From TrEMBL:
It comes from Clonorchis sinensis. The lineage of its organism: Eukaryota, Metazoa, Spiralia, Lophotrochozoa, Platyhelminthes. Keywords: Cell membrane, Ion channel, Ion transport, Membrane, Transmembrane, Transmembrane helix, Transport. Its main location: membrane. This is Innexin. Signal peptide: none annotated. It is found in: Cell membrane. One of its GO terms (cellular component) is plasma membrane. GO terms for biological process: monoatomic ion transmembrane transport.
Length: 132
């Protein structure tokens, strides 16, 4: 039922009579763009309207306002990924090392800045040398 409604809506958007050169690949490209748009709409709705990203704090105050504060803090300061069996950092120096090497937001800047790309590459080589 839902698929039929979506298919009818999609058929209204596509106008094959007005486009002279359109083959399977062109239609697949349009379908892919629509699916990516729907997926991004779902993710944005979840992150910005419903609940924000999940931050883990081992010990801390409870309450709705504190949870909102922690989610806002994580949005501003970013997150650091941990491997499944990796121990939780216990000192400020360990946190700084995780922050310096594994900052997720550095990945986005890597594509824009050559200096940062070189720094990230050297950090990745340094990190891989110690984990292998």
């Amino acid at each position: 039922m839902v698929f039929a409604e979506f298919r009818n809506l999609f058929d209204k958007i596509i106008v094959p009579d007005k486009v002279g050169v359109e083959d399977f690949v062109d239609r697949l490209t349009l379908v892919t763009a629509v699916l990516f748009g729907l997926a991004s709409l779902l993710v944005c709705t979840k992150q910005y309207i419903m609940s924000a990203l999940t931050c883990y704090i081992p010990v801390g105050p409870s309450g709705e306002l504190f949870r909102d504060f922690v989610n806002s803090y994580c949005w501003v300061h970013g997150t650091i990924p941990l491997k499944p069996n990796e121990p939780f950092p216990k000192s400020e120096e360990m946190w700084d090392e995780y922050d310096r090497i594994r900052r997720i937001s550095k990945l986005c800047h890597c594509l824009l800045d050559e200096k940062l790309r070189h720094e990230l590459r050297s950090q990745l080589i340094h990190y891989c040398a110690f984990t292998v």
